[in-house]
Amino acid sequence: MEPIVGFLAGIPTGTWIAAGIAAAVAAAAVLTLSARARFRRFVRTAALDPSALGGRKLSPGTLALRERYVVRRARGGFRGNPGPFPGLPAALGYGERWISTLERGGNRRTLSRVLEFLPDTGLFACFRAALRSEALGRQLLEWAGTEAGAFAFRRIALSGPGRDFDGTKARILLADRLDEVRELLGDPEWAVRVFAVRILLGDGDERTARSLRSCLADPHPLVRRLVVDGWTNPDRKDFFKGLYDIMISDPVLEVRSSAKARIRKDFSDLYSPDPGSMTPEQVLHFLELLDSRDPSDEGIAFKYLESEVPEERLASAECLQASGALARILETAELGDAEELERRFRLLDAAAELQVTDFLSKVDTMESDGAFHLAARILARAGDRKHIATLARRWFPRMGPPPYTPERLGIYDLILAASRARGGEDACELVVAELNARRNQPELAANILMSLEGNQGPCVFPALQGLFLDPTFGLRAQLRAALLGQPRDQVVPLALSLVRADRASLPRVVRKDALYLIGELKLTGALQRALESLPLLDAEEISDFAPVLAGADMDAFERKARYILDGVDAPTRAAVIAALPATGSKSFLSDVKAALRDADPDVRVAAARALAGFHEGKALASGGLDLLRDPVERVRVAAASALAMEGGAAVLQGLRSVLEDPNEVEEVKRSLIRGLGRASDVGSLDLLADILGEQEALREDVYPALAARVSKRDLERLIERFKDATGDLKALLAEGFRRMGGTGERTLAALLEEDIASLKPYIVQVLEAQGYVEARIQELKHRDPKVRRDAAAALSSVGSLSAFRGIVLAARDPDPEVRVAVTRALERLAGPEGASLLAELESDPNPRVRKYVLWALERVKAKSL
User: Fold this and answer.
1) DSSP per-residue codes, 72-119
2) Does an H or E element contain 340, and which?
3) Predicted pLDDT of residue 12
4) Minimal CA–CA distance to 560: which of 602, 532, 591, 523?
5) CA gap 860, 865 in Å, rounded
6) Are 359 and 348 in contact (CB under 8 A)?
7) What is the CA radius of gyration of the chain?
8) 261, 534, 674, 835: which has the highest count of C-beta atoms within 10 A?
9) What does DSSP assign to residue 403?
10) Residues 446-474: tens digit of each pLDDT
């Protein structure tokens, strides 16, 4: 081993370097030869079996270096496979390289190779290069004249179907061969016809004009569009007619748009569209081309936005949205003109119905109350839901503190309705926050609670629960209604846990509401718990609540009621007795009668009220009169009320004696009077009228009782008493009529229409004293014609001098129905029964009254002729 090492160490360094270089050169030569061999195998494979390449391509550098070799092999083939192989360059990737070179400018060699090896795919690139270079143009034309270039122009067109090029330069290049180009207009392939049209558009030859005129009806839309855009027909009117027909009849929007643009550009003096003469399909085409920048087109769009045809509405809405008109009519809406506001809503709603709602983006910036009103109504039905939250976020703070105008309350309710109908979680959270902020404002809080009914958003139940547990929150019924729309698996446990809660830890109002919830949830499994909890409620509340409990399961209710009535607990027995009339079941009537003599005062009170509720007047008269002398005051109070309400004629004398008894406490007398106010017999009404006149100390209690007796029968009787009354009683009854308010006034007006001759003057007297006539005269100036019609009819029914003084001033009302009512009223004056009234009107100190009376009477006379 040592001799070998010594030998190597003795070799000079230069020798080592020379040997290394020789080895490297040899290795490089081997690698180069190997790479060349692999390349040639690759090229051979591409020529013989391109699919075997598996998508492999040569690198750009290899393509550049080996181009001559590839071309040689494509022409001459290989040993044993002489070729040629015209598809070889394309298989190796030269097609993209050569075409890219031509697009950048090209040269004769590249053009030649494309024409030789890529005639189908690269011809169009050759053509575009030829348009840029005269030398390449001559080369292309020379090739086109050879056998290989047969049908050259058609092949050029098919190699770049529909692609654009400079038609003017092409026409110059092919100036000597335009006849061949014209022939291409008849080719079945659309790409060939497009190619020919692009070249011929600027040609002034008459043969070309005839050919291009026929292209307006070409089967392919691109051909038609090119002719519409670029051709000029010497016959201007004929060309306009063809363009107009294309604009309204062509099925392709692109072509129709080009036709309208050409008309606007060159034929605006002839353009005067008449949608009324178009077919429905043509109208739709016309509307789709409306120019959003043209005021006249905008007016047409507004007209068709109210069309009954959805397609026409959609096209109009899209035009108005693009022009910003829809946004403008939203932003500028005002509440002052109800008719105009409703018109704007119809327009916006017609667009929104077809999902054209971009105008709602103005919710972010609009300021007028009318805009908020319209946006809320639209968003309740359509549009992006996110705008509902924006609307709520912007409007809620604008409400400010009370008092609130009816208009602003209306917008508030509309926004709540939109949130309820379509609002997302963001809107829900805003409404809940608004509820907490407005909890002490019943006017708004009630509306918010109503909007939350059925809304099961995750933020709703915790907010409602918090309010439910707050005894100071007043809107309990509305709150319960909202809770009933929440998931039962949340509401039921809440109600059951509260109804039996410790009295010291939970206020009575909360436990009472929990009881209501149990009934309204129809929890039959908690029926006994609910019945045993009835003492939480007042008598009136029990009457309201009982049908809810009994409605869930009447048989179970009666079994539980029997169990409790047989028990010893007086408050529970009294509560159950109070509930019985509202259920409609008389199976416990004997128990109720017996309870009139119960030892517990509350049971006796409940029994008296229950018999009144059952309308058992005879049983009440026989067993209840003794209760008027009961030692317990609250029993006497309940008995007096029940007997007054249901006792009838049999107990009137006993009731009168109680009212006249100076030793009876005032509360008993007041309770009796309240009962008389709820009675329905004539005798009780007469008793009220008598007490009104006889006992001054009780008058303020009698007035509310009289105000509750507003049925036609009762008012007819009171008018008879008014007719016969004298002195103070007449004035007191007049005050009683006044305190009946609008309900009594409406009933008296209805009585007046029945035309009871003996009572009419007195009804009129009462109505005039209450200001009824003056109020109707003011309504004759109302903007709503329906209000004016009703006012005119009402004044005609009154028929007094003051009524006629008012009604004649409406003789020239713009509404025909109001004028008819005036005429009918004045026809009565023309008769013998109206002579005295007519005389007074004709001498009225107001000249307008005298003038209109004479004018109206002339019309009456003319009508009679």
Assistant:
1) HHHHH-BTTB----TTHHHHHTHHHHHHHHHHTT--HHHHHHHHHH-T
2) helix 338-353
3) 74
4) 532
5) 9
6) yes
7) 50
8) 534
9) P
10) 888 888 888 777 888 888 888 888 888 88
Q: How far apart are CA 851 and CA 865, in angstroms?
A: 22
CA 578 to chain centre: 47
pLDDT tens digits, one per residue of 203-253:
888 888 888 888 888 999 999 999 999 888 888 899 999 999 999 999 999
Backbone angles phi, psi at 366, to 5 degrees: -65, 155
- Pull the structure tokens for residue 28: 């490089």
The gap from C-alpha 510 to its chain's centroid, in whole angstroms, comes to 37
Banded pLDDT at 865 (limits 50, 70, 90): very low
Q: How many residues does the chain have?
A: 865
Sign of CA dihedral 747, 751, 753, 759: negative
Report the alpha-carbon angle 489-495-498, nearest 5.
135
Instruction: Report d(CA 351, CA 330) in Å as an integer.
Output: 12
- All residues at 6 or more sequence positions from 649 whose CB lies less than 8 Å from its CB, including other chains: 681, 683
Q: 0.90 exceeded by the pTM?
A: no
Please state the rounded mean pLDDT for residues 1-12. Answer: 67
Contact 565, 573 (CB under 8 A): yes
- How many other C-beta atoms lie within 10 A of the C-beta of residue 759? 20
For the chain, helix (H) and strand (E) counts, in that order, are 53, 0
Write out the two tokens for 354.
């077809």
Token pair of 66 as six digits: 């080996």
Please give the full DSSP string across 491-527, using - where no structure is assigned.
Answer: HHHHHHHHHTS-TTTS-HHHHHHHHHHHHHTT-GGGH
